[in-house]
């Protein structure tokens, strides 16, 4: 979505520049410039910055904080015990003591599963504000900024070190994620835990804990690269790059050839989506749940969380590993939670689409208003 918006804004700037170059004067023949390029440029820049801030806030709050809480929440269940009651009404059947003993029933147990806090975005934000204050939707932001800055620097360094090609960029991305796995786990711990008096840099995971998430982090990083390489590989395999470089070539194809190109384009798009759903989605959920299992006992969680993962995790004090396995991390994430998380991502996508359309429309309106004002003047 960010790439689409960036492309639209770039095209808008290019179109505005071409218009001023090809039509620098008004249509009435006088020497009055048509519009004001500096005013238009300033308006577009301000609008683009506003879009970036809003889109980033939506992505961080809902795609980061709320999604992570959805991945780790374990809905609680209340047990109700109902004891049998003997009837004392006058018309009750007359039974002997022996008959009453024989008809005595066992107490009935009812399990009432609470609705997850993360079932709705609104209830999640409301819960966060009640537990951690009005700025809780941006919890962990300092850690995230540090992580992304260090990741970018490390990624650029490793890309140059590995040769600068596209394949080397994938290796650089995977190695960067693995090297910074402890910093990423720190962000997860800050997001899912209750407010703490400790500063975030004093809660850094130990090297021992870092070793336990090396494999899940590598799997997740490789999965993300697979989601990128699968569409790119098919794109070049089908020879679609020629039609994107020269769109006129598509017009000269027969109807059957055009349908084949459109079908190939659809297959490329679907390959990325399928890879994201079937590979990246489970890898990310597994990583977050493994990270959550390493949260210190002294830190309470801000949402209900089963530290034992249904009895799969045993503390190190009792001889256990103290961390959930990758398989158990995914298996204990039931289908109800999976569907809830998929629904959340669908809502985020819809919100981002609406936000982008709004700001692009606003940019077009600003350009027309500024041009129109100068023409009338």
Question: How would you describe the overall organization of this protein?
Answer:
This protein has 14 helices and 2 strands, in the order H-H-E-H-E-H-H-H-H-H-H-H-H-H-H-H. With about 375 residues, the chain is mainly α. Strands 1-2 form a two-stranded antiparallel sheet. The two termini are about 40 Å apart.
3D shape: globular
Q: Cα distance, first to last residue? A: 38 Å
Based on CA atoms alone, the radius of gyration comes out at 29 Å
The beta-strand count equals 2
Name the assembly state.
Answer: single chain
Provide the low-confidence segments as ranges.
24-34
Q: Provide the structure class.
A: mainly alpha
Q: Quickly count the helices.
A: 14
Mean pLDDT: 84
Helix and strand element order: HHEHEHHHHHHHHHHH
Report strand order across the widest sheet.
Answer: 1-2
The share of residues in extended strands comes to under 5%
**Largest sheet entry:** 2 strands, antiparallel
Percent range of helical residues:
55-70%
